[in-house]
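Notes from hallway chat w/ T.B., transcribed later so I don't forget. T.B. wanted the structure written out for a chain they're using in a teaching module, and asked if we could keep both sequence and C-alpha cells in one place. Agreed to drop them here.
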Amino acid sequence: MTKMMTAASMLAMLLGAGPALAQAKVMNLAFTPPADSHYGDAARAFAETIADLSDGAFEIALRPAGALGGERDVIEGCRSARSS
C-alpha cells in the first residue's frame, strides 16, 4: 500500500510539473541598431531558426536599439555572465 501511495504521489508531482517543464528557456539577443534594420532582420531569422530547431525549448528575446546598453555594455555583460 505504501509503495502504491508513493508511486501515486510521484506521478501527481510529475503531472503537475508538466507545464513548468514545458517552458522555453529564454535568452536575450542584444544589438544596437533598430529592430527594422538588417541586424533586426538577421536576429528575427536567427530566433525563428533556434525556435524551430529546438522544438520550442529555446526562445530568443530580441533587444534592439541598445535596449541593454551600447556594444561595450553588451560585451562586458557577456563576460561577467561567463565568470559568474
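Follow-up for T.B.: The mean pLDDT is 81. Might be a good example for the class.
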